[in-house]
TrEMBL record, chain A:
InterPro entries: CNOT10, TPR-like_helical_dom_sf, TPR_rpt. SMART domains: TPR. This is CCR4-NOT transcription complex subunit 10. Belongs to the CNOT10 family. Keywords: TPR repeat. TPR repeats lie at residues 703-736. The keyword Chaperone does not apply. PANTHER family: CCR4-NOT TRANSCRIPTION COMPLEX SUBUNIT 10. It comes from Brassica napus (Rape).
Length: 778, 437
């Protein structure tokens, strides 16, 4: 009875509704077609009409917000976000009401559907993505992903791809796998061997080789020869191969132009019901390679990129080539990387030329060719800005605008070139994207420290006066007096350099960095609670292989040969990556503490310096270099705190017998340091020249130990004990200012002022300057 | 940063040279020209000058000491940061007696309490009128006990404590050469060349005053700069063009919401009556045409039992399609907790062959089946027998199809078979169990 009456009522209302519906849906179609043809004014007019007919329909409001945004040339992202958030809130409120009000009938799901805010949420996430807020984007999409099954395929794909890109940008391998796993299940690409695809690929590559298409053969030969090269480490072979491939490339150019960027055409099909599954397959395969690159599983990536090349064969291989290039870059085969980058053809398109220049710049940086890298990076930035000017209407141009990422690269480059002010500017700009990454803050702190060393800090000295001993010659004749001055302070006359780099800034940056690092470590621990036994095991078994995970790979190869267990490979890859990250974070922590101790000493705050140095020394498995720095900073801080005994204990840790110091660390200790470059890196020598200048030489460190122990003895009045040490120190560091001063001090204390002055005259870094006679005039 | 500013240097130097003015006038002028905050820098400079007996003339030295005393006269002598210098000077055997006596007057040591009187004299007059026979000079220790500063001084750390004066004689000036002897200062004719060694005390002193900086010369510590954190190649950002993540137009706007309306209506009907084969087929086709329709067809976990009772095939169809849904657990729960029937068992049985069901669910379902059979005892023997036979067939099917591992449920199922051994199917199931043992 009840159902009959309600049915009748519904029939009546349906008649009225049907008329309204046909009108509105016609209008909606018009609005969409105007939108698609870029006529946003007309589109908005219609939407406003619709809004009159259907008061407060969130979907209409949503589309108005989108159209308005495009009408204003995508200029006001903030307003878009506000509008979308309002719409979202509204639809959520509406969605609650009918659920409570309407009696359980067939209508529930209809009204639910009407107030579904999935699209709005997706668009909010898209906007954040374009604003480079990747973590935020992920967190917004998370709830959608949790309930992704009911969503339409296109929307679901869009959500997943957005999440994958964001996870890659955040280096969040775990999240990436979660999303990828879902796609994998739905679209069946799978990791490792995929039997059906594999067989078809086999087939196609056979055909291909018959028709002598070059890309696949080059891919195959690449793999083969690189294996050979790895085995024999023959450089001549590399040359051979290089020529071969170049010839192939030439031949291929003649045959057919390389297709341009894939640009992931698949999302163009929005609105159509189905998506070309092949495209999704290629896409997923490419993402798989990117995951393996992220987790630095170079060997597996190499194999997977070959699959990608095979899938891409029929259409567009530039993305696959680009990834192949990245792979060679990650592997340290820089020449090959350059070659592949060129073959990918992305430089030909305006949209991607900036990316091309940036990536080439990265390669040149690794080759130690900073000048070239700098030219390339600025070219890339120019590409980006011209892109912005030309093509403002399309939103994607915003995300295609990679200038902030390139700016970060510039910062790294400038820092390496010893230009701290420029570098800091770059890092500060890039902080829009990277402000949650501890490394960025360490880099800014390093800029401050470098600026301090170069005398570029505002409260510091000009470079000419920096760390020099100045002896003022005052008076004449029998009245002539010498006034010694180390670090003569000279006011900086109006040097209004932009960045306010300073030591207090460095201190703030370091503590920011430490904070972020601890937060991320804490997250890792809480996440990995369950799998910690596993990771410990991996830690033990894979001590030796952290640049590329050799053991895991051979295992995975075995497993793959059997076919299956792909999930294991991925899990291995993931846990190996976690392991790498853990080590990197550990190293970062050491660096942060050492820098903190240094900065606190510079700021004359020995208590904090001591606590930083002690924390550094308490870290397990510390690098020898940082152990040395920890000891030396702790000793100095203890001296400043009038605790010479403890200070001496820190220094004498390195004593050999009575009067000699061992080298506190060896040059090899810089090796894990010198990028975790894989052992088969071709251009190792090039890389090393790039980095050598930044490092502390073991002999210098030994000299510092001598000088500091001498200083310690001297302050305690043990001049006889101090003298041999300072002699050693000066032998190792003949023009060191601090050691010279200590030596002079000792000379003076034992009454040898003649010797002291002679020493001053010998030291190359002493300048005798006339006294300030102008006083007399006043 | 030098201690004193240029103009301060000039003032101090003029004051020091005022040897003919009464000392108290000089002090008054000093007070008027310097604020309290400048006392320390000025006194530090003076103390450095005073360390060398040769640099300042004796009258200058007296004035310098007077200033150092004056600056801190309002506090106890032991709080004067320069008290140890003054004590040392007062006890210095080599120093002139008038200077030592002057310092003792400043300290008001025993009988030396004439400071006020002396200040009325000029420095030059004081020296002239000084009685050289005075001999009553205290030991260093006595003065230190009396005035020495017991608390740690202002110096902050050991480097500073051990800091050395920075002023050296030029080694080219011969040792023992007395710069005060008039020998070198022969008046040269204006424009003439000055004699080697001639020099100007004024120039030297104001030069020193003008260049003095805080702090002494201390042993220096080498503080190596931490090496830059290595740039891993992954730190440089290699850029891949990413997908075009465009804003999405909501094409559900004002769209026909009748999507699946027929299916929904049919399903509402299906909750109450068994649908005709054509109706069932309509639903199946619609569901397979639109894979997402199942999420919008209106069958909630709460309604599932009704659907199972009337249209088990459709229920299987829907559950199979919902298998990836996050809500599938709720559907399973509904299935487990509904009243046991031929249909519910049929649904589960069919599901086991269509999709992989969670082990936990199957286990719970079987337990439920068994307890339903036991509870049916009170109602109707016939119904109970029927139910038991159904459960036995169901279990045999599950075992034969390897859906369940008998080991998990062995005891439970065995007990069930023994309980109902009167039923033929139960005996059969028991035999099956025995063969598997």
């Amino acid at each position: 009875m009840d159902s009959i009456s309600s049915d009748a009522a519904r029939d009546g209302s349906i008649c009225d509704e049907a008329i309204v519906l046909s009108v509105t849906s016609a209008l909606a179609k018009d609005a969409l077609s105007y939108f698609q043809s870029g006529k946003f004014h007309e589109c908005i007019d219609i939407l406003i009409q619709l809004n009159h007919k259907k008061r407060n329909d969130p979907k209409v409001l949503h589309n108005i917000a989108i159209a308005e945004y495009f009408k204003n040339a995508c200029s006001n992202s903030k307003k878009l976000l506000e509008d979308l958030n309002t719409v979202k809130k509204q639809s959520e409120e509406f969605a609650k009401e009918p659920l409570e009000a309407v009696n359980p009938g067939s209508n529930v799901s209809v009204s639910k559907h009407q107030f579904d805010s999935t699209i709005t949420t997706l668009n909010i996430a898209v906007t954040w993505f374009h604003l480079h807020q990747y973590a935020k984007c992920l967190s917004i999409l998370d709830p959608l992903f949790l309930n992704i099954e009911p969503l339409d395929e296109t929307i679901a794909l869009q959500i997943c791809f957005l999440m994958l890109d964001s996870a890659l940008a955040c280096h969040d391998a775990v999240k990436f796998l979660e999303v990828f796993g879902h796609l994998d299940k739905s679209f069946g690409v799978g990791f490792g061997t995929h039997e059906e695809i594999g067989s078809t690929m086999q087939l196609s590559s056979n055909q291909v080789s018959k028709t002598s298409s070059l890309l696949s053969s080059s891919a195959a030969s690449d793999a083969l020869k690189s294996d050979l090269a790895a085995a024999e480490s023959g450089l001549c072979e590399e040359g051979l191969e290089y020529d071969n491939v170049l010839a192939e490339i030439e031949a291929e150019k003649r045959m057919k132009p390389v297709g341009h960027i894939p640009a992931n055409n698949l999302l163009k099909t929005i609105g159509e019901r189905s998506i070309l599954t092949v495209d999704v397959k290629l896409e997923l395969q490419l993402y798989k390679v990117r995951f393996l690159l992220l987790t630095r599983n170079v060997k597996l990536a190499k194999r997977e990129v070959k699959h990608a090349m095979n899938i891409a064969q029929k259409r567009d291989s530039s993305m696959a080539l680009l990834l192949k290039s990245q792979l060679e870059y990650a592997h340290g085969n820089h020449r090959k990387a350059i070659k592949l980058l060129l073959v990918s053809g992305i430089q030909k398109e305006l949209r991607t030329s900036g990316i091309f220049n940036n990536n080439l710049g990265c390669i040149y940086y690794q080759l130690g060719k900073y000048q070239a890298a700098s030219v390339l990076f600025s070219k890339a930035l120019r590409n980006c800005s011209s892109l912005r000017k030309d093509n403002p209407v399309k939103l994607f141009s915003l995300s295609q605008d990679k200038s902030l990422l390139i700016t970060y690269n510039c910062g790294v480059l400038y820092l390496a070139c010893g230009k701290p002010l420029l570098a800091a500017q770059c890092f500060q700009k890039a902080s829009l994207v990277f402000c949650r990454q501890p490394l960025l803050w360490l880099r800014i702190a390093e800029c401050c420290i470098l600026a301090l060393q170069k005398g570029l800090l505002e409260e510091g000295n000009t470079s000419s006066d920096r760390s020099e001993i100045r002896v003022h010659v005052i008076g004449k004749g029998k009245w002539r007096q010498l006034m010694m001055e180390e670090n003569g302070f000279v006011e900086l006359g109006g040097s209004a350099q932009w960045p306010k780099l300073s030591l207090p800034l460095a201190r703030v940056c370091l503590s920011n960095s430490m904070y972020l690092l601890n937060v991320s470590l804490m997250n890792d621990y809480s996440k990995s609670d369950l799998e910690s036994p596993l990771s410990v095991m991996i830690n033990e078994t894979k001590e030796a292989s952290w640049s590329d995970h050799g053991d895991a790979d051979t295992n995975s190869e075995l497993k793959e040969a059997k076919g299956g267990m792909n999930q294991d490979i991925i899990q291995n890859s993931l846990s190996a990556y976690k392991d790498i990250r853990r080590r990197e974070n550990h190293l970062l922590k050491q660096a942060l503490l050492a820098n903190m101790a240094y900065v606190e000493l510079e700021l004359e705050n020995p208590i904090k310096a001591l606590s930083a140095a002690n924390s550094l020394l308490q870290l397990p498995d510390c690098s020898k270099i940082y152990v040395f720095l920890g000891h030396i900073y702790a000793a100095e801080a203890l001296c400043l705190l009038n605790r010479p005994g403890e200070a001496g204990a820190h220094l004498s840790a390195y004593l050999l017998g009575q009067e000699d110091f061992k080298l506190p660390f060896a040059q090899e200790d810089f090796d894990p340091w010198r990028m975790n470059m894989s052992s088969d890196c071709e251009e190792t020598s090039d890389c090393s020249t790039g980095n050598a200048r930044d490092s502390l030489k073991p002999e210098e460190a030994r000299g510092a130990l001598f000088a500091n122990l001498a200083a310690l003895f001297a302050t305690q009045g043990h001049y006889d004990q101090a003298r041999p040490f300072i002699q050693h120190a000066l032998a190792l560091l003949p023009s060191n200012v601090q050691a010279t001063i200590t030596a002079v001090y000792i000379d003076l204390m034992v009454g040898r002022s003649q010797d002291a002055v002679a020493r001053l005259k010998q030291c190359t870094r002493v300048s005798f300057v006339p006294g300030r006679l102008e006083v007399r005039a006043s | 940063m030098t201690i004193m500013k240029m103009e301060e240097t000039a003032i101090v130097w003029t004051l020091l040279q005022s040897d003919l003015r009464p000392i108290q006038d000089v002090l008054a002028e000093f007070n008027s020209k310097f604020t309290r905050s400048r006392y320390f820098p000025v006194c530090s400079s003076l103390s450095i000058l005073l360390q060398d007996p040769m640099i300042l003339r004796s009258t200058d030295r007296l004035i310098a000491f007077a200033i150092m005393h004056q600056c801190y006269s309002s506090v106890k002598p032991s709080l004067n940061p320069f008290v140890s210098e003054m004590i040392n000077a007062a006890c210095n055997e080599q120093a002139e007696k008038y200077e030592r006596a002057f310092l003792l007057h400043l300290f008001q040591w025993n009988s030396y309490n004439n400071a006020k009187e002396i200040f009325k004299l000029s420095a030059a007059d004081y020296i002239k009128t000084f009685d050289p026979s005075t001999n009553d000079f205290p030991e260093l220790g006595e003065l230190q006990r009396e005035y020495g500063n017991k608390a740690d001084g202002p110096s902050s750390h050991m480097f500073a404590d051990y800091a050395l004066k920075k002023l050296l004689h030029d080694p080219d000036v011969p040792r023992g050469c007395d710069p005060n002897s008039p020998e070198f200062d022969v008046q040269v004719q204006p424009g003439g060349i000055s004699k080697i060694g001639s020099g100007d005390r004024n120039e030297a002193i104001s030069g020193i005053l003008g260049s003095l900086t805080m702090g002494g010369l201390a042993p220096r510590w080498i503080r190596p700069c931490p090496p830059r954190y290595p740039v891993h190649q992954s730190e440089l950002l290699w850029i891949d063009p990413d997908n075009k993540h465009e804003l999405v137009w909501d094409d559900k706007m004002c769209a026909d919401t009748s999507r699946g309306a027929t299916v929904r209506d049919l399903l509402v009907k299906g909750l109450k009556v068994t649908l005709s084969p054509t109706e069932q087929e309509d639903i199946t086709t619609a569901l397979s045409n639109d894979p997402k329709l199942v999420y919008h067809c209106g069958i909630t976990p709460r309604k599932l039992p009704q659907l199972v009772e009337h249209n088990p095939q459709i229920a299987v169809e829907i559950l199979t399609k919902l298998i990836n849904s996050p809500e599938i657990v709720d559907y399973f729960t509904a299935l487990v907790s509904m009243e046991m029937s031929l249909h519910s068992m049929e649904v589960v049985n069919r599901l086991t062959t269509a999709v992989e069901l969670p082990k936990e669910f199957i286990r719970m379902f079987i337990t439920n089946c068994i307890s339903s059979c036991e509870n049916a005892k009170q109602q109707d023997k016939y119904m109970q027998n029927r139910l038991v036979r159904l459960v036995c067939v169901f279990l045999q099917s599950l075992i034969r199809n390897n859906i369940i591992d008998v080991k998990d449920l062995f005891i439970e199922v065995q007990a069930f078979c023994i309980d109902f051994s009167r039923v033929r199917e139960a005996a059969g199931l028991f035999r099956l169990l025995k063969t598997l043992e």
